[in-house]
Amino acid sequence: xxxxxxxxxxxxxxxxxxxxxxxxxxxxxxxxxxxxxxxxxxxxxxxxxxxxxxxxxxxxxxxxxxxxxxxxxxxxxxxxxxxxxxxxxxxxxxxxxxxxxxxxxxx
Length: 107
Known about the structure:
Blueprint: H1 12-27, E1 33-35, H2 43-57, E2 67-69, H3 77-87, E3 95-97
Parallel strand pairs: 1-2, 2-3
Helix pairs in contact: 1-2, 2-3
């Protein structure tokens, strides 16, 4: 998990490196759970995650992704919209938690 608040000694460069690894794992359909709460995820990272989720489906393999935890991040309407499009194509997903973000009525 990428928990920024629990790892104050970790640099932002280190966190971004780990996030790129997570995206690669999603693209390669290697993960079933994404514990990304408290990771300072913004709309930009949410859109990158959505793109990785869509790329995973193009492999022709059934998605393993069942849980996405994005609580307590900085995702707003734009990031939520990007994720919603990707989520719609992942029937394996059972739980997506976006609690305590900056998502309004349009997200």
